[in-house]
Amino acid sequence: MAATYRVGVIxxxxxxxxxxxxxxxxxxxxxxxxxxxxxxxxxxxAEKYSVPxxxxxxxxxxxxxxxxxxSVPTWQGIRGEITIAAARSGVKAIIGEKPLEAAxxxxxxxxxxxxxxxxxxxxxxxxxxxxxxxxxxxxxxxxAVGQPLMVYHIAKPNAGLLNTATHAIDxxxxxxxxxxxxxxxxxxxxxxDRWERRSACEDLCMGLVCFEGGCRGVYEGDLPDPRIHMxxxxxxxxxxxxxxxxxVLLQQDGETxxxxxxxxxxxxxxxxxxLDWMEGKVPGHRSTGHQARYTLEIMLAIFESLRIKxxxxxxxxxxxxxxxxxxxxxxxxxxxxxxxxxxxxxxEEQTG
Length: 352
Fold this sequence. Notes:
352 residues, alpha/beta, Rossmann fold, six-stranded parallel β-sheet, 18 strands
């Protein structure tokens, strides 16, 4: 059966390969063009998946190719402008990687343009398709632990908020059935010239998030030892945490020990659900741009809390990145010289 949808992928790094592979192996789609500022990266990916056209300018790709879907697995700092251009080019759907963007201004703009042009926007919070997390969501919704009181995450060492917290905070919202966020308070340190994927990055941070209904989210990123590990979800009548090999561990008040639950499979993924959404087979997608906006807003509110030295009540109105603003105004001066990126070295970091 011939593929139904023509797909273009903009960004041919690691995640570009994931998107190209997923679309190539889907019977409903055909990848017809790739774009990357590195012709070599685009050429290598095109050869691997037999993609007929490559570009070094995404605008040229959008102009010349009659696309139905665009994947944007780029770094966050340029995702907004690419998504807006794609939405205005006449495509039906866009799927980007996480986080949505690096600041609320471009994030809001890209959602608005997609809505205005009736373009379905999805952001790759693929953990929403995890059987483990989906079962946790069901258990919480069914009252297995009573009223949710706290969700908790301690980040892996040496990882920035915009990267590692994106999945963590989106997971909180998913397992709690996507509540509204009421307020955020946080603390941040940045004394080194640290970056991640070319966005300024903090050295450490913590955040306390209050969701509708009162449940608190506690996030720790690169805080000093000792590290502690708490249940993923604590409620008024029990606790839930992820166990080994995808099992869910449930402890309910009045019972002894943790009960193991094998979650049922999730019979779709983010790519198929997008296609089903386009075809009207499902009413929506669990990882829409609107959902991704909430996650980005919480992360940036952690920075905003330090900037305004107060609790941040949502929605967050600041269009720029509060971290960038504090770096620019001298509130977060670099005390240890030497710019470096956690993910992709700057030219001055490269040797040999």
